[in-house]
Amino acid sequence: MAEPLNIQIVSDLVCPWCYVGKRRLERALAARPELRVALNWLPFQLSPDMPREGKDRQAHYATIFGPEKARSIMVGMQQTAAAEGLRFEAGPGARSPNTLSAHVLLYWASQGTGLAAGVDQNALAERLFAAHHTHSEDLGDPALLALISGEFGMDPARTEAALRAGTDEDQVQALMEEARKAGVGGVPFFIFNGQYAVSGAQPPEALIEVLDRLSPGGRSTRAS
């Protein structure tokens, strides 16, 4: 049997376009059900200097964009999300977190051993995206991440202790540095079989084009 198509997805869990991009990739893959694929989520931080305790989300957005523009951007993203079957909310007290610990949790799932043995990394990514964008949960809180880990069969107490100890944060930081050195300056960023790169939450049709080029008998023209 042929090897599955490997799709690496560089993303940050607080990035709304990354969640939209996930849905659009899923729509593209649904249009090619015969393809076997392996998804691998790789870390990126839009705000690497965010304090570990995070900031109030509304205040953070207002500081970056100004209050009026921040509201306009949020409304626009809610409309874009709704078109993909997603619901974006930022309830009272919602935080803009430092996502390093959440990326560590995804990293453990990618390794398939230890605390996260048997955890579906893609399913975990979906839960973490929903936690932030739909449920206004704080992805910077190790206690919350531990509770989420328990939903996937992990040991919450051990998970929380490891997150608070900073276990494997150096490994995740190294992966982010590799992405930056490779030229990844924004997310989402999709890498297909190490050959084709697609930047941004492109429409499913653009992703289908790449899938077709990499399928047996597909064209070999490089994607832009």
CATH fold field value: Glutaredoxin
- The domain count comes to 1
Radius of gyration: 18 Å
CATH C-level category: Alpha Beta
Strand content: 5-15%
CATH superfamily: Glutaredoxin
DSSP E strands, number: 6
Distinct helical segment count: 9
Query: What class, by secondary structure content?
Result: alpha+beta
| Low-pLDDT stretches | 219-224
What's the N-to-C terminus distance? 29 Å
Approximate helicity band = 40-55%
**Largest sheet geometry:** 4 strands, mixed
In the sheet with the most strands, the strands line up as: 2-1-5-6
- Principal-axes geometry comes out as globular
CATH-level-2 architecture: 3-Layer(aba) Sandwich
Mean pLDDT: 94
Element order: H for helix, E for strand: EHEEHHEHHHHHEEH
What is this structure's SSE topology?
Layout: E1 5-11, H1 16-30, E2 37-43, E3 55-56, H2 57-65, H3 67-83, E4 95-96, H4 100-111, H5 121-133, H6 142-151, H7 156-164, H8 169-181, E5 189-192, E6 196-199, H9 204-214
Parallel strand pairs: 1-2
Antiparallel strand pairs: 1-5, 3-4, 5-6
Helix pairs in contact: 1-9, 2-3, 4-5, 4-8, 6-7
